[in-house]
Amino acid sequence: MGLVSNKQAQLEIAGRDEHALVSLLFILLKTARFVDANNSTYLTQSSKFYVVFRRLVDKYGKISIKIIDGRVFVRDKIIKFNSDGLVNATAILDNWRQIGVGGITLDDSLDNRQLDKFIYLIAKGSGTTADRESVVQRLSDLGIEGISLLGIEQKTEKKLLSEEKRKLIRRTARVTFFKSISVVQDAMVCAAQDKEIDITKARRVVHSMIDQISGNESYMLQLTSIRDFDDHTYAHSSNVCVYSLTMGVRLGFDKLRLSQLGMAALFHDIGKVRLPGDLIRKPDAFNENDWIQMQRHPELGVKTILRNLKFDDYSARAARASFEHHINDDFTGYPVLREKVPTNLFSKIIAISDTFDALTSGRVYIKKAIPTDEVLRKMMYQMTVKFDAFLLKMFVNIIGIYPAGTLVLLSSEELAMVTQNNQDNLSRPQVKIIGDRSGPKKEFTSIDLSQAEHTGIGIQKIIDPGKHNIDLKAILQMDN
Ligand SMILES: [Fe+2]
Ligand SMILES: [Fe+2]
After folding, report:
1. Counting ligands in written order, which one lies closest to the CA of residue 361?
2. Which domains does the chain show, CATH number per domain?
3. Which of 132, 286, 402, 429 has its CA 20 to 30 A from that of 396?
């Protein structure tokens, strides 16, 4: 079972020598700007670099150092910098980008003298308008044969294409998400009238959700942040479905199991249609009698599913999840079981998703929304006995510190929406800048706060869109 995201799994982290090579290279480039090549500090670092370089080149032949999207790779393995390293890297990377250098390869013929010439050529050229061709020419003039320059990876055209594709995927995610809400609504209306529920539509929408989430979970996750539905009952089911499927995908479920999980999540609260509408939509806190009524919905859900849905594997699993989704791992919750049988994996997944959405929306059982960070803290520390520890950890990882769709104020005084979490750096997610003090921006710009070039920007605080009159739904519906 893979807990790490695909993205993380693909990136192999560089070893000690690779780290040392880059750190020393950056130190040399920095030192060379202030002292000449006979300076003892420079010479010490230069010989250290050379020792590491020899070790690597003897082992692997050619060594490449590449910069791709603000990250540094040595031999195609990613370098993880500490904060000091990141500051150094940011300055150097900017400099390289200016002169159109996307990386270098070092080969066996590189010696100390060539290395020093190269360092000084690049360092002295920093801040100038030199272009890559002239640097290449100078390398050849100076007889530096052991180093060749790599261009900046030609991503412009690809990016334009993927930009279009990205917009299309976002649009599909939106259509799918809103469709899922109407499917739940239709099903609940049907069930309330005791008619047979046509599950073809539900299955179709669940399959679209699976495709979306398997491709990029973040678009769907962003949509779960919309809170201003007139009736949250239906959106609640869709949100629970998105969270549950995201976990299912990460658990490596096959398509059939994902499809069954999605259906179970979508119909987990269907028993509520058998309860008075006034109770479901009650704006005030529940009294004791309300709770007694409310706690019947899991059993009513089983009855509804068995009565109004065609009986098959899907409905059987959905019925079980409906029955168990409020039974905790410590057997607290409801319905109270005479025999303590552990709940099913689907039920455990849905229970976590359900609790998170209910608490953060403040629209399901408790009538006050609790900030997401507080809910996660509650779930992690106070509710650990209630949930499966492994699944809970996975869920917290998915949601992150700033869940996708959260509005945040950046240290640059700009307003941004979190678009995607970085699994290896949850406090620095990817964000979309949507406005500043002077108001909303016409063009949104996306930045990845975990990237070296954005080290200077941090998240100041979470902004409540309701309190600031910000229409999050409208922002999520924009294509850019
Ligand atoms: Fe429920
Ligand atoms: Fe629920």
Report:
1. 2
2. 6-153 (no CATH), 158-399 (1.10.3210.10), 407-476 (no CATH)
3. 286
